[in-house]
Amino acid sequence: MKIQVFDPPMCCSSGVCGPSVDSELVRFAADVDWLKRQGIEVERYNLAQQPAAFANTPVVKEALATEGNACLPLTLVDGAVVCKGRYPTREVLAGRAGLAASGTRPAAAGTKATGSCCGSSRSPATSGSPKRSSCC
């Protein structure tokens, strides 16, 4: 299993630097470290530092062409999009990896998590502005 995270342009590889650090980036960096300790391969790419990775990954290139930077961060598990426009939670990542995390149950033996985690949908209560899923 391989998880790839395509980050928006940031000043450093994790975004956890500078005088005002986004708490979401801190949470996600901790989740990535946790996954790596569980033996899961995680690769992160920063648009500002590694643009070739974005251009050489067809699903990411297509998302950027159709949605612009709003699709970032974009998370792939084994090449399939699982979260777009925000970072997935540890529970979502653990479920995809078949691991147990606080508040999650491990996937049953021989099963694989399916379905997409995040993305945009239209909310009828708004003036056509995109509403993101709250799953991650």
The assigned structural class equals alpha+beta
Low-confidence stretches: 103-136
CATH class placement = Alpha Beta
Helix content: 25-40%
Q: What proportion strand?
A: 15-25%
Q: Round the Cα radius of gyration to an integer and report it.
A: 15 Å
Q: How many individual β-strands?
A: 6
Enter the CATH topology name.
Glutaredoxin
Compact summary:
The protein is built from four helices and six strands. By secondary structure, the protein is α+β, with helices and mostly antiparallel strands. The longest helix is centred in the N-terminal third of the chain and has 15 residues.
Explain this structure.
By secondary structure, the chain is an alpha+beta fold. The chain has one domain: 3-Layer(aba) Sandwich (Glutaredoxin), CATH 3.40.30. It is about 30% helix and about 20% strand. It is built from four helices and six strands, in the order E-H-E-H-H-E-E-H-E-E. The protein has helices at about 25-35, 50-55, 60-65, 90-95, and strands spanning about 1-5, 40-45, 75, 80-85, 120, 130. The strands form two sheets. The chain has a four-stranded mixed β-sheet. Strand 3 (about 75) and strand 4 (about 80-85) form a beta hairpin. The radius of gyration is 15 Å and the shape is globular. Mean pLDDT is about 75; it is low at about 105-135.
